[in-house]
Specification:
Blueprint (H helix, E strand, L loop, with lengths): L3 E7 L2 E8 L4 H6 L7 H6 L13 E3 L6 E6 L6 H15 L3 E6 L14 H4 L10 E5 L11 E5 L9 H7 L4 E4 L2 H9 L6 E3 L24 E6 L2 H4 L5 H11 L6 E7 L13 E5 L4 H9 L3 E3 L9 H8 L4 E4 L16 E4 L1 E4 L12 E4 L1 H13 L1 H15 L4 H14 L5
Parallel strand pairs: 4-5, 4-6, 6-7, 7-8, 8-9, 10-11, 10-13, 11-12, 13-14, 14-15
Antiparallel strand pairs: 1-2, 2-3, 16-17
Length: about 425
């Protein structure tokens, strides 16, 4: 029986190739043909006849010279920060980059305008055969392109429909071992890769300062997050509650909570707790981290967690649960970079995460104890903060970009 080799186009995108005696269209769809009805697929193979016989196999489009990045474009969310820093590092590596947004960029321009190098690379209606998506696991994949997606999630499971969609990708990249195992357990069968996120050491670093001779006049804890997205998962109110329990009556201690202007926080009325509802540029955020004695997270789960790593890079020891993405950098190896908080596995609250596995909810009594330990041992805080800053130097956006490029070449997207 003759073998068909068809070089054609699908929805106007060239370099789609099928070969074999007859593609089992069910098989083709399963490995990535984006739910195209069989008759539609047949009609778009440049009119070439498909013979009866064994299944065809689907070949991904040929590698291309540039990375078409479709993502959230802003400097106010974790995905947005990741995308902006990745574009910069890809450019530094000599990779050609074009960018198209998942959402309108204008909504962020008021307080988080796009970097000029990103704006210069914005394109409309790109004809690339491949796309690289950075976004949530439910981010739609372009049905006219082959896709690689970098995604993260903050619970032990994702919805079945999300897993099925991710299986249309040539590869799924994530930032933590936590997500590797959770995605696999949820039914993701596309090739899975891990590339940790990072920091820019030019912005986030531990400044030189004199050796600590006496207790600081005021011991400052910091915590934060974008509550409009993370909500109760971030555990900011739990940190405030633990702070009040740990330091009742003490006046030489303060908790600063860095939030965004649209975050809702029920302030307990304690003037030692400073709620900051502002968007800060990177330099101001880094200066804030550098002024902390310790950074605390009450988060129930993170896909990775940029704020704790940024704080560590600036010399603040990290107090949090060694669960989910935070396990990538909290007390990894022999040198402690902070204090680990005990947690219990529990279903997510009734919100966006409901029905998607488990969280690692920090135990309140453990959070109280670890905060007291840090407060009572400022010299140990200094020591662990130095170790934290050294460890964070390993996790840079440059290393993230190198890891991404290696995978894009491995799966055949990038020449």
């Amino acid at each position: 029986m003759p073998t068909l080799q068809a070089q054609g186009s699908l929805n106007g995108v060239p370099t789609v190739m099928l070969e074999g005696d007859r593609a089992s269209l069910d098989l083709v769809l399963a490995v990535g043909f984006r739910n195209q009805p069989p008759v539609e697929l047949l009609m778009q193979l440049d009119g070439l006849p498909i013979q009866e016989g064994p299944p065809l196999r689907f070949l991904w489009p040929k590698p291309q010279q540039r990375v078409l990045l479709r993502t959230h474009l802003n400097d106010a969310t974790g995905y947005g920060q990741f995308a902006g820093n990745l574009v910069a590092e890809l450019i530094n590596l000599g990779v050609e980059v074009a960018v198209t947004p998942i959402e309108p960029t204008a909504i962020w321009e008021e307080f988080a305008p796009l970097a000029p190098q990103v704006k210069q690379r914005l394109v409309e209606n790109p004809s690339d055969a491949w796309e690289f998506v950075i976004g949530l696991p439910n981010s739609p994949l372009d049905p006219t392109k082959a896709s690689v997606i970098f995604t993260m999630w903050e619970a032990t499971r994702i919805r079945r429909a999300w897993a099925q969609q991710l299986n249309r990708a040539a590869a799924v990249i994530t930032a933590s071992n936590f997500n590797l195992t959770c995605f696999s357990a949820a039914g993701v069968e596309a090739p899975l890769f891990r590339v940790p996120l990072g920091i820019n050491p030019a912005h986030f670093y531990r400044p030189q300062r004199p050796e600590l001779k006496a207790r600081p006049a005021k011991f400052v804890f910091g915590t934060g997050g974008r509550l409009a997205h993370g909500g109760v998962r971030k555990g900011v109110e739990e940190v405030a509650r633990a702070f009040r329990e740990a330091f009742s009556g003490k006046r030489d201690v303060e908790l600063q909570i860095k939030m965004w202007p649209d975050c809702k926080f029920e302030h307990p009325g304690d003037n030692r707790i400073k709620a900051i509802h502002e968007f800060w540029p990177v330099a101001k955020l880094a200066a804030w981290y550098q002024g902390l004695n310790a950074y605390v997270s009450g988060s129930c789960a993170e896909g990775f967690g940029l704020m704790p790593l940024q704080a560590m890079a600036c010399g603040a020891p990290f107090i949090g649960a060694k669960f989910s993405g935070q396990a990538e950098y909290l007390n990894v190896g022999e040198n402690p970079v902070g204090w680990t908080v005990d947690y219990e596995l529990a279903p997510p609250d009734k919100n966006f995460y409901e029905g998607m596995g488990l969280w690692g909810r920090p135990k309140q009594e453990s959070l109280v104890e670890r905060m007291r330990q840090a407060y009572e041992n400022p010299w140990e805080c200094e020591r662990r903060g130095k170790l934290a800053a050294e460890f964070a130097k390993q996790l840079t956006w440059q290393n993230t970009a190198l890891g991404v490029v290696e995978i894009l070449k491995k799966v055949g997207m990038l020449a």
